[in-house]
Structure prediction request, 247 residues.
Amino acid sequence: MLKRLALATALATTLVTAFALSAASKASPLPAYPFVHVSAEASRYTTPNIGALDFLIVARDADPALARGTIETRIAEVRALLQEQGIPLEDLETRDVRREPGRNGAAEPTAQELRVSAHLIVRDLSKWQAVVAPLLDKPNLADFATSFDIVERDQVESELMADALRDARRRAEIIAKGAKRKLGAVTAVTPGGVKNVGAAIGLVRADFSYTRVRDTNVRPSNVDARNFLSVDALKLVQPIDVVFRLE
Prediction:
């Protein structure tokens, strides 16, 4: 559910008047007519309705057969949890089976580890805590990262673009009036990407990931579960740059 709409302050506003260019200046990137350039931005807070959890399944067994057995056991336990919560098994993806040098909780080198990357999509966030909390307590799971998004992203992006364009025109009209000119047609628009600056991955963003203790043989008592169990609001932002002709 969308909570509120806020048009942010403009990043920059520049008024430039260009006159007839000489032959030597025709390579200039500036338009060869009077114009105004406006930077504007629209933002919106929204409640996410889809989430993702990324984590590693790690086995330290020196025997490759035992390591594979550990990995398969943990995957089976995760699948059983998903079935219990009514999460489709196809929403769990495991990939990138590899052996890498290990590290303990003090970041000291240890024997090689067998690692598998897991990516889980939760389409019903009412089940988020019931799914994620048990996974945080399982052995051999590490490097958790969470993200949230909205299913209706295309629609919201379109609405934000329209809001940003309206705000850009309003700002440009103020400048044109102050310069005693008439605002003309749009001659260029450069959109910026919509960014999740709340608790988001896109569906994984490094700046919103949290790493749990690497020693998978002990219970991670120092993991702050609130980092993973809470579902925070998202702030979606649409910046644009617009060039208007001045008449």
Q: What stands out?
A: The chain has four helices and ten strands.
